[in-house]
Amino acid sequence: MTLTRTVADDRPGLAVASTPEPPATASRRPALACAATLVVTGAAGAALLVAANRAAEWDTGDQFGFFWLGLLVFTLPAVVWLVRRGTGARLRIAVLTAYAGFTYLPKLLRTPDGPLYHDEFAHWRQAHEILVDGRLFEQNPIVKVVGDFPGLHSTVASISALTGVSIWHGALIVLITAHLLVVLGVFVLAEEIWPEPRTAAVAAVLYGLNSSFLFFDTQFGYESLAIPLLVWTLVALHRAMRGPAGRARYGWSAVTLMLSAATIATHHLTALGLLGVMLILCAVATARALRRSHPRAVTWTAWVLTVAAAVLVVTYLAVVAPRTAGYLDPYLAKALDQFAGMAGSSGSGKRTLFRESVAPWWERYAAFGAQGLAGIAMAAALWRLRYRREGDAVSRTGALAMFVLGSLYFPAALLILTPSGAEGARRSWAFSYLGIALVVAPVVVALLDHATRRPVRIATAGALLGVCAVALVGNTAAGMNPSYRFPGPPVFGSDTRSAIPEVSAASDWLRATQGRDLRIVADRYSGLIFGSYGGQRPVTGSQSFRTYDLYLAQPDREIPPLLIQQLSSWNFGYLIVDRRMAREVPEIQIYFETNEPVPHDGKPAFTLGQLTKFDGTPWTIKIYDSGNIAIYRFDFASLGRPVR
Fold first, then answer.
1. Looking at the record, which segments are called Disordered (predicted)?
2. Angle at Cα 4 formed by Cα 374 and Cα 389, nearest 5°?
3. Helical (H) or strand (E) element with 622
4. 412 and 310 in one domain?
5. pLDDT value at position 345?
């Protein structure tokens, strides 16, 4: 695949004027100056990012300033080189590659040697199981549907097996490559819509402002590989629509379907998002074809490929991953209920943004300001689309479809006001921000080109860079808590800081003395460690299997007999008790799972008696105790009654 078009374009009515090649010495000077600039600023930026993590470890409060200064020290000069008129095609690709590598650095410095975020433990375990046992589609005890989408895990396990590196380092190879493919993919997709390479480069940078770019879509998660697959699927779809009838169109159509299949085998939400974007593109193409503004053959190509992709998605979800609908439904249903309650007179279900957050005031203001800036930018993009008609029919259709996609960003942002909808809102921004980036990019370039006098041009460029910096800071602050972005002291009930060495030691002891693949009952945070590094099969409770009733029961009350029967008949062998639940309140207000019937009123929901009562029950035998962590073996035969 070619990344740029430097000769006459195959789109009707478009031609790029060829320019004579400059002398070799003169052509090297910008490249050498660019390399020197980015090496110096990259080293300074990396040093500041390391200083930010060190400040966070000592809890000095300076980590936010160090972090953003380090990120902007590199990215702002890189953007200047990308939008510079004299930057050649090869140099622009090199700068984009450097930009992709540097923007992966914050996540790499945060988790250099192993999983840290909640979902990373599930994906690490899945890849490890494939490497050890060689079996795909095994159910994952941490995230139930992870095993149904083996694209990422099989890739990581294959690299680990071929190279001999660990699962985590194999994952880093895949994730860094995927991050690079996202940046280059947005650049190429923008070139399919706008023929000007500066506009395409600006689109790639604007996409990097979305809240998922720095941390969420760089984690060891299936969306990190699926997002670049989605972007390159759209590139192939545009080229199939534009290609002449014959081998070119058939070839790009085959690539589109192949990438669509790879996307659905990697991540369910990204596959559904891809299908939604393709349907938007088809709807716009159909509307324009009815007005005779779009070739019917191109419209039919889009519909045929979209229907074929829909068949792949529906068939996969129905045959291979039928549990996906049941997995996603509770989150959507509860979010809608909370949104309805928030809109009602009671105001129930409302979520307070930045509640008890340690983020500085300027990050919080930037988070709200980023939404307003996005609205202003989309209004300017709409005006430009209305009065400036550029490109051929496919380019025009693609631009209008991306505007519709970008407009979905704003209703999705409302879901962040509900506890259950916040997660879905953040995940949707990786898709909708693609539309914003692609339609706002020509507005940015037009503003730069409109300023002809040097002082005005410098002022305009400085203002635009400032706006992008505010959007980057605000979107990241809105999408990721400080505990995800920075290290720090252990915090109970945090998905990133609750994994103390004491839990890991207990997990290692259980695996070494009792074996792996044991069915155990645990809380959310112990379950992450026991279920990943420990190789066990933890259950943290659900509405149909209320294992948290074991912990909630008072010392003088009987455990529900139905729960005992379930545990015995399903061969559960061990109980993990973290006594910190009696002393501390979880940071994310969850002990076991999101729908737990546990009070959250600012004080611990358990007493020490509730957690130590298992020392005296005849059907639990303590086999391990480290102070905070206790492990009990179930002995249901001692209950003195037959158990089915």
1. 1-26
2. 50
3. strand 620-625
4. yes
5. 46
